[in-house]
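can u do me a favor
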């Protein structure tokens, strides 16, 4: 078997290559790609194909002004080892052919980890957008991916001050770390006037008051016993208020098998495109979720967010936002409070997190441009 060559430094091109593969990557990459384009930087978008359904992938390119991927590796689904191995093989070929000047990776998905590993071994510099987040829960695949990616990255772009602290604690050289704000919030603010709740309400025939739910973490959706318990709890909540839930493909079969849609006030939808989904969140009385990005978006939209997890890598959404960690037994009581106008009771809602101002993409582009000269 051939041994993979490392790249001599002089072979590097000026091209910046973005690695995207899963739904949240697209939302984070859009403002970075746009800001680098403003500066005239040569760039390419490599889609790994980790997510591939139109509603998990292509819709974001159509809606967010992202350029069509220059290549789609078509890796698809599999076990962690199968998927990560296929990602690495495809990315290695691509990187050797392109010889990029920088590889940019986003968030904490398997595509992110695979790209960072391959680039590091080829001696291609890596920039990690959304570095330093920590749940301190190594049972989450994302926590493994984040920790390794940060160690391999030459530039770590952090969304919050505590992320900078985590990187420092892990011995990451401060010179590599830049607090830049949150590109996912850049995207939200850039499209704010497209989130028209009244139009969505009439198009989807939404009730006047409703909750939005979205769940996809393995800890919530992979074990049928846990799914059955969550379904019973959501049905209890739905006795009092309608629930609208765009269902992530990971949990669809389990939620259907457990009869989630059998309650007359639970409405299950296909995953929504970004504009419809954020509009659905904006119009909701509250959100029940385990999504990372949704904890951040609700913080800016001021919508109460009940996060069905024992921890969060985004504590800034609790201290500076509307987020609260909950167990399922708390849901009926908390939802009743919110519907009664009592907010989340005890959670103080202060200013939005620092630098979540719509300019993160430009800050990232400025740092990268200075590295590329
Ligand atoms: C992945 C990320 C997770 C992120 C989530 C965002 C990892 C380890 N996990 O989880 O951090 O929060 O994306 O949504 O990278 N599937 C489809 N169609 C698709 C994509 C997936 O049907 O377009 C189904 C397949 O059955 C697949 C399953 O969803 O096996 C899981 O997909 P995968 O990409 O492995 O992980 P996610 O749970 O989506
Ligand atoms: N999202 C979407 N449609 C949906 C559910 C989520 O467009 O049906 C968006 C959401 O607004 C956020 C991103 O997808 O911008 C978050 O992705 P996800 O929850 O899949 O991943 P996580 O953030 O948990 O990694």
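np, heres the sequence
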């Amino acid at each position: 078997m051939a041994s993979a060559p490392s790249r001599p430094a002089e072979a590097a091109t000026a091209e910046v290559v973005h690695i995207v593969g899963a739904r949240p990557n697209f939302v984070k990459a859009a403002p970075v790609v746009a800001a680098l384009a403003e500066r005239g930087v040569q760039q390419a978008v490599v889609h790994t194909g980790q997510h591939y359904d139109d509603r998990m992938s292509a819709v974001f390119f159509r809606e967010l002004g992202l350029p069509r991927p220059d290549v789609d590796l078509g890796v698809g689904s599999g076990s962690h080892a199968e998927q990560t191995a296929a990602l690495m093989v495809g990315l290695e070929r691509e990187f050797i052919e392109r010889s990029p000047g920088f590889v940019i990776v986003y968030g904490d998905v398997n595509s992110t980890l695979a790209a960072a590993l391959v680039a590091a071994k080829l001696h291609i510099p890596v920039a990690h957008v959304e570095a330093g987040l920590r749940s301190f829960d190594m049972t989450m695949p994302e926590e493994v991916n984040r920790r390794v990616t940060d160690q391999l990255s030459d530039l770590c772009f952090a969304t919050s001050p505590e992320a900078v602290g985590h990187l420092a604690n892990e011995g990451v050289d401060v010179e590599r770390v830049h607090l830049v704000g949150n590109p996912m919030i850049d995207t939200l603010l850039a499209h704010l006037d497209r989130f028209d709740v009244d139009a969505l309400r009439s198009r989807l025939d939404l009730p006047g008051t409703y909750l939005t739910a979205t769940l996809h973490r393995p800890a919530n959706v992979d074990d049928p016993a846990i799914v059955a318990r969550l379904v019973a709890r959501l049905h209890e909540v739905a006795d009092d208020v309608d629930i609208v839930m765009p269902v992530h493909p990971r949990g669809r079969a389990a939620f259907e098998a457990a009869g989630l849609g059998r309650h007359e006030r639970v409405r299950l939808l296909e995953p929504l495109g970004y504009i419809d989904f954020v509009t659905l969140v904006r119009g909701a009385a509250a959100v029940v979720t385990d999504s990372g990005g949704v904890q951040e978006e609700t913080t800016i939209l001021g919508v109460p967010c009940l996060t069905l997890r024992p921890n969060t890598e985004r504590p800034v959404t609790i201290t500076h936002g509307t987020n609260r960690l909950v167990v399922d037994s708390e849901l009926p009581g908390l939802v009743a409070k919110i519907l009664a106008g009592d907010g989340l009771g005890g959670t103080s809602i202060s200013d939005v997190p620092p630098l979540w101002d719509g300019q993160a993409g430009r800050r990232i582009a400025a740092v990268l441009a200075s590295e590329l000269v």
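The chain has two domains: 12-182+355-372, 197-339. hope that helps!!
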